[in-house]
Amino acid sequence: MNELTALHEAITASVKLALPVFETVEAYVPANQNQTPALPALIHAITGLKPSVDPGDGRSCIMATFEARILVDSSSLQAPSQAVTLAAQVAVLLRKQFWGLDFVEEARLVEALPVIPIAAMPDAVEWRVQWEQALYLGSLQWPWPNEPGPLAFAFSPDTGPGHEGNYQSPEDMA
């Protein structure tokens, strides 16, 4: 399983556990799906990727933009209130959220907005929650042997070959 699959599975599981009010929690429901999922529903997806700060360890750091579509049954008189309440609950869930994965930084830049109804989903009131998370993808790489030796310090110009006796361990410098 790759990192993105694991991430989507972790998001789905976390939302289902924290917010059991959702009848449907899924990643990437196709836009041309002919039937509305069981409501209320949360459909999540990555909607953007851009490079971020290189961690220098062989992995790539990618800043991912996520979107969660929250859909509630529009036939209820409380639909607008239920939609905004669920959006707020998702925003709270995102605080300091790592999804239990070691390659994901905490969620940031969380925002929630109502969506103007469209003909494709006339039976649902929709809110969207967006956020960003840094993802560290790929394998850690250390191009040097596992035996680099102990950490030692020396001060110029008394460094290099012939000055090995001038080097000190951090403990000796305390």
Which key terms come to mind for this protein?
single chain; 174 residues; alpha+beta; STM4215-like; 2 domains; five-stranded mixed sheet; 2 helices; 18% helix; elongated
* CATH-derived topology of the largest domain: STM4215-like
N-to-C CA distance: 47 Å
Let me know the largest β-sheet: 5 strands, mixed
| Secondary-structure element series | HEEEHEE
Count the domains: 2
Shape: elongated
CATH architecture of the largest domain: 2-Layer Sandwich
- The overall pLDDT average reads 87
State the name of the first-level CATH class of the largest domain. Answer: Alpha Beta
The CATH superfamily title of the largest domain: Phage tail protein-like
Catalogue the unreliable spans: none
What integer value in Å does the Rg equal?
A: 24 Å
Structure summary, number of beta strands: 5
Helix amount = 10-25%
> Order of strands across the widest beta sheet?
1-2-3-5-4
Strand content: 25-35%
Describe the structure.
This protein is of the alpha+beta class and 174 residues long. It folds into 2 domains: 3-137, STM4215-like (2-Layer Sandwich), CATH 3.30.2000.10; 144-174, no CATH class. It contains 2 helices and 5 strands, in the order H-E-E-E-H-E-E. It has helices at 3-18, 79-94; strands at 24-27, 41-51, 60-73, 108-115, 124-137. Strands 1-2-3-5-4 form a 5-stranded mixed sheet, covered by helices on one side. The mean pLDDT is 87.
